[in-house]
Amino acid sequence: MNMTKNVKMKKDMQAYWESLPEVQSVLKEKVTADPWRLTYHQMPVTGWLNDPNGAVQFNGTYHLYHQYVPETPNGGATHWGHKTSKDMVHFEEETIFLSPDQLFDEDGVYSGSAFVHDDKIHFFYTGNVKHEGDHDYTYSGREQNTIHVVSPDGFTVESREVVIAHADYPAGYTDHIRDPKVFEHEGVYYMILGARTRNNLGHILLYRSDDLYEWSYQGVFSAGNEDQGFMWECPDYFELDETGILLFSPQGLLPEKHAYHNPHTVGYLTGQINWDDFKFEVSEETTGEGQAWPAFRELDRGFDFYAPQTFEDECGRRILWAWMGIGDTEPEYSNPTVARGWQHAMALPRQLTLENGRLLQRPLPEYQCLRHNIKTHRLSEIDESTLKGEVYELILEFDETPSSFELTLRQDTQLTYQDGLLTLKHGESGFGRRKRMIPLADLSQLQIFSDTSSLEIFINDGEYVMTSRVYPKQDQQLIHVKGDAQGQITYWDLKL
Question: Are 40 and 89 in contact (CB under 8 A)?
Answer without folding.
Answer: yes
